[in-house]
Task: inverse folding
């Protein structure tokens, strides 16, 4: 007895159903792409923070020891309070943070990371589904 033709929509239409798209592969692509995106973002954040720390600190000393043995935890260019009676550093309201030179390259890398993670997720989903396709092909051949 031949197998009936699948019909989508009305039962009396008689047209065969169009082939289904691989919804499973698209779902797995989203999952794997999200995992790749999170991993790439975390790696970029670690590299960004390490580079920012290296750029901010540079080669200036972290602390400075004066002749009196006092430990000063301030940048070396701040005035010594005993020298002129001034405050050691200008108040925070007078200082403006410099524009970060690493922000725009990091955003460009994130923009490129999105499509790359989708492609990597698509390839990984295909690799994960290849045994399932092989099993389904074998079962179809055995059922004929």
Result:
């Amino acid at each position: 007895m031949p197998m009936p033709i699948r019909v989508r929509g009305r039962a009396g239409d008689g047209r065969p159903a169009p082939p289904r798209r691989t919804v499973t592969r698209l779902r797995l692509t989203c999952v794997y792409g999200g995992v790749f995106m999170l991993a790439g973002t975390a790696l970029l954040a670690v590299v960004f923070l390490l580079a920012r720390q290296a750029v901010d600190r540079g080669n200036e000393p972290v602390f400075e020891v004066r002749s009196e043995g006092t430990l000063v935890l301030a940048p070396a260019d701040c005035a010594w309070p005993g020298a002129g009676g001034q405050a050691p550093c200008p108040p925070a309201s007078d200082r403006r943070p410099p524009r970060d030179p690493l922000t725009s390259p990091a955003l460009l890398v994130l923009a490129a990371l999105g499509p790359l993670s989708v492609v990597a997720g698509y390839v990984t989903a295909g690799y994960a589904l290849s045994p399932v396709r092989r099993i389904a092909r074998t079962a179809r051949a055995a059922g004929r």
Q: What stands out?
A: The radius of gyration is 31 Å.
